[in-house]
């Protein structure tokens, strides 16, 4: 059994900060669970282009408000606390935060912890931890 406390991840190499977000990576590929789990904060007033071509992601909003825009159909999906959205078709999207949004994100395949969004909002598929 594995027990992870958020306080033990903050200010470690498992807390990654981007321009618009901070991702605290709680469960990574090396745990052998087959998925990764992240506690992510999206900054208010930001728009982030994301396109997980190599991963499926489910996102559960636990705090805040914003919206997801799927780019293939320009559909706007309002997101607030107690709402889950699943990017089950590798959906290219914009994530817009009206207020700070705190999200629990689950990735399949799991993230190693080494991934960084590229210019298209894509995480590369990393097979080994550097």
Describe the structure.
The chain is mainly β. Helix content is 3%, strand content 45%. The chain is built from 1 helix and 10 strands; from the N terminus they run αββββββββββ. It has one helix at residues 6-9, and strands at 15-17, 21-27, 36-42, 47-50, 56-63, 65-70, 75-80, 83-87, 93-97, 101-108. A 6-stranded antiparallel sheet has the order 1-2-3-10-5-8, with no helix packed on it. Strands 4-9-6-7 form a 4-stranded antiparallel sheet, with no helix packed on it. A hairpin with an 8-residue loop joins β2 (21-27) and β3. The model has no long low-confidence stretch (mean pLDDT 91).
Mean pLDDT, to the nearest integer, reads 91
Largest sheet: 6 strands, antiparallel
Structural class: mainly beta
Distance between the termini: 25 Å
Discrete helix count: 1
Shape: globular
| Unreliable spans | none
Report the count of strand segments.
Answer: 10
Radius of gyration: 14 Å
Strand neighbour order, sheet with most strands: 1-2-3-10-5-8
The ordered H/E elements are HEEEEEEEEEE
> What share of residues is helical?
under 10%
Q: Into which percentage range does the β-strand content fall?
A: over 45%
